[in-house]
């Protein structure tokens, strides 16, 4: 039989997905479980509209980041967009409270984000390259320093345990490290931006080729490739043995020192298992200023959680305050949980055959 043909009115827009009862129940249950956990950790739930003005979303960001936004105009002709991520909306909401004197805001949310689906680009739910994504996350505004970084990372770890996930890996980097490292080699700003884009897209082969074409010394590239992955206990020894021999620049050294302190604290608290450090980790959002992190697990081809510190974003909304947050990608989490449940069922079946 040939493939079944559907009338035009039954087609979905590219990147959209229909969710039927069984999966809808699973999705709602997962979102509720995460929200209940975050609220028990002291975070209060907030919500915001799906539309933001483009000039609001561009605060603290580059114009180039609008390429995958879904944009339209309101009745007055002002450009709007379906929000591509939650953090700018949270910053807009929190700025008046910060300006009025509040210095410790802990919020959680369950929202949808939207990105423009492009022709000839595979949008799949296993890799989370989809036009619409469900997210549940937290934002902590008003606190800075290693202690708050550790607190949020351990919150992410405890949430993973709360969901009974296994075989996951939380990878931590620093938004300031690789840019500072590359600039210290004498590269032009255009070359640095091109190389950072390759890293953000996970194209390490393209990164190395472009770096060599730009004249970066091979020894420098080899040293950079040695900076991942590292566990917290190995960071101090590695910096003494290799890194301080380089002329990587003061900002890169400061970022490294911060991660060294962070790794030591995490290990001391007993949360080191499953956490590694990758100094080449880059995110495609320019408002990050400190640590950045991603969580990977079997069953998803992209991070199931991601976040970082964005200490300068609030000032673009009229308030100065440090901030940090992360979000879980719900569809990716469902894929992982389904994969792990299937693997567990399969293993039990094989044991029964013995």
Keywords summarizing the entry:
354 residues; 8-stranded mixed sheet; 18% strand; single chain; globular; 40% helix; 2 domains; alpha+beta; BirA Bifunctional Protein, domain 2
Summarize the entry for a quick read.
With 354 residues, the chain is an alpha+beta fold. It has helices at 21-40, 54-57, 87-99, 146-162, 177-183, 189-200, 204-213, 218-225, 235-241, 250-268, 330-353; strands spanning 44-45, 51-53, 70-73, 79-82, 105-114, 132-141, 168-174, 275-277, 291-297, 305-309, 323-329.
Helix and strand topology:
Blueprint: H1 21-40, E1 44-45, E2 51-53, H2 54-57, E3 70-73, E4 79-82, H3 87-99, E5 105-114, E6 132-141, H4 146-162, E7 168-174, H5 177-183, H6 189-200, H7 204-213, H8 218-225, H9 235-241, H10 250-268, E8 275-277, E9 291-297, E10 305-309, E11 323-329, H11 330-353
Parallel strand pairs: 1-5, 7-8
Antiparallel strand pairs: 2-4, 3-4, 5-6, 6-11, 7-9, 9-10, 10-11
Helix pairs in contact: 4-10, 5-6, 5-10, 6-7
Description:
With 354 residues, the chain is of the alpha+beta class. It has two domains: 21-169 and 298-347, Bira Bifunctional Protein, Domain 2 (BirA Bifunctional Protein, domain 2); 176-282, no CATH class. Helices cover 40% and strands 18% of the residues. The protein contains eleven helices and eleven strands. The chain has helices spanning 21-40, 54-57, 87-99, 146-162, 177-183, 189-200, 204-213, 218-225, 235-241, 250-268, 330-353, and strands at 44-45, 51-53, 70-73, 79-82, 105-114, 132-141, 168-174, 275-277, 291-297, 305-309, 323-329. The protein has an eight-stranded mixed sheet. Strands 2-4-3 form a three-stranded antiparallel sheet. Strand 3 (70-73) and strand 4 (79-82) form a beta hairpin. The two termini are 40 Å apart. The mean pLDDT is 85.
């Amino acid at each position: 039989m040939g493939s079944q043909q559907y009338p035009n009115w039954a087609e979905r827009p590219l990147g959209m997905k229909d969710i039927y009862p069984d999966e809808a129940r699973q999705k709602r249950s997962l979102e509720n479980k995460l929200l209940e956990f975050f609220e028990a950790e002291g975070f209060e739930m907030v919500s915001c509209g799906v539309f933001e003005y483009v000039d609001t979303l561009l605060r603290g960001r580059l114009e180039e980041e609008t390429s995958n936004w879904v944009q339209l105009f309101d009745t007055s002709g002002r450009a709007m967009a379906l929000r591509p991520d939650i953090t700018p909306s949270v910053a807009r909401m929190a700025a008046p409270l910060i300006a009025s004197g509040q210095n410790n805001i802990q919020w959680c949310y369950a929202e949808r984000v939207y990105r423009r689906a492009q022709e000839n680009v595979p949008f799949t739910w296993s890799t989370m390259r989809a036009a619409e994504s469900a997210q549940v996350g937290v934002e902590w505004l008003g606190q800075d320093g290693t202690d708050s970084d550790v607190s949020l990372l351990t919150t992410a770890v405890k949430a993973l345990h709360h969901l009974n996930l296994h075989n996951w890996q939380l990878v931590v980097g620093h938004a300031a490290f690789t840019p500072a490292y590359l600039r210290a080699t004498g590269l032009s700003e255009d070359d640095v931006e091109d190389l950072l884009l390759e890293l953000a897209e996970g194209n390490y082969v393209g990164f190395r080729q472009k770096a060599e074409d730009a004249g970066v010394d091979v020894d420098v590239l080899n040293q950079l490739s040695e900076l991942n992955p590292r566990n917290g206990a190995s960071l101090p020894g590695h910096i003494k043995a290799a890194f301080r021999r380089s002329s990587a620049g003061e900002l890169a050294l400061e970022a490294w020192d911060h991660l060294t302190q962070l790794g030591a604290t995490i290990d001391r608290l007993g949360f080191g298992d499953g956490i590694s450090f990758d100094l080449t980790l880059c995110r495609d959002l320019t408002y990050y200023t400190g640590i950045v992190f991603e969580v990977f697990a079997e069953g998803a081809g992209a991070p199931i959680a991601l976040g970082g510190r964005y200490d300068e974003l609030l000032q673009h909304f009229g308030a100065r305050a440090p901030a940090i947050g992360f979000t879980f990608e719900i569809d990716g989490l469902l894929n992982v949980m389904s994969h792990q449940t299937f693997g567990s069922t399969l293993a039990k079946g094989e044991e029964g055959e013995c």
